[in-house]
Write a structure and sequence with these properties.
By secondary structure, the chain is of the alpha/beta class. It contains 4 helices and 11 strands; from the N terminus they run ββαββαββββββαβα. It has one domain: Lysozyme-like, CATH 3.40.80.10. The chain is globular, with a radius of gyration of 16 Å.
Length: 202
């Protein structure tokens, strides 16, 4: 498994120096097209933001490491949870709206290629950007590596909704498990199937 540690590496000012114990991997979607979430973070707070995620999975399956996972940032905005977690953001536009011109746009009115649109009614939304097989494979491989490296339980939680005790879970969770109004990750990411794949060859 190849990890690109150079292309989107962040400065030390964008993360904390301490190295707390890790018990979770948190998966989220970027909710933007292309690599626009990275561009946004580079300019957020005049380049000084600590809201960075640890890894990004590109649409072609490339794994980008923004900082060493032993450190942490303010990705979730919950200090104790951020200290304990390693965050993976998968490039995906999330929920989409169909315009009168038959285009599909996300919350920023960025247009999703029509061949990547999936129709599925879920959480009040009907259209989504599909997830690429290369992204699933890279996320699987990265999760397996991180769980071994940091002694995290190799198990994905199998529900999307918020849970008050989620910080106590040792394993792989979603950003939406922390926030009631979050639809990240979208239903194209099959949690049960992903969990089954995690257990293969283990």
């Amino acid at each position: 498994m190849k990890i690109d540690r150079d292309t989107y590496k962040i400065d030390i000012k964008n993360r904390y120096k301490s190295t707390p114990e890790k018990t979770q991997i948190v998966i989220a979607f970027s909710l933007r097209k292309e690599d626009y979430h990275v561009t946004h973070l580079k300019h957020k707070e005049y380049g000084n933001t600590k809201k960075w995620n640890t890894f990004t999975i590109g649409r072609d399956g490339t794994i980008y490491e923004h900082y060493h996972p032993k450190h942490y940032t303010d990705f979730l905005g919950l200090k104790d949870a951020d200290k304990r977690s390693i965050s993976i953001v998968i490039e995906n536009m999330g929920s989409l709206l169909k315009t009168p011109e038959n285009k599909y746009v996300n919350w920023l009115h960025e247009i999703c290629p029509i061949e990547k649109v999936v129709e599925k009614k879920w959480l009040g939304h009907q259209y989504w950007e599909d997830i690429y097989p290369e992204q699933i494979e890279s996320t699987l491989n990265l999760c397996k590596k991180l769980c071994i490296d940091f002694d995290i339980n190799l198990k994905m939680i199998e529900f999307h909704y918020q849970h008050d005790q989620i910080m106590n879970y040792n394993g792989i969770v979603l950003k939406s498990n922390y926030f009631e109004d979050s639809s990240s990750v979208n239903p194209c990411f099959n949690l049960t199937k992903f969990n089954d794949l995690l257990q293969l060859n283990e």
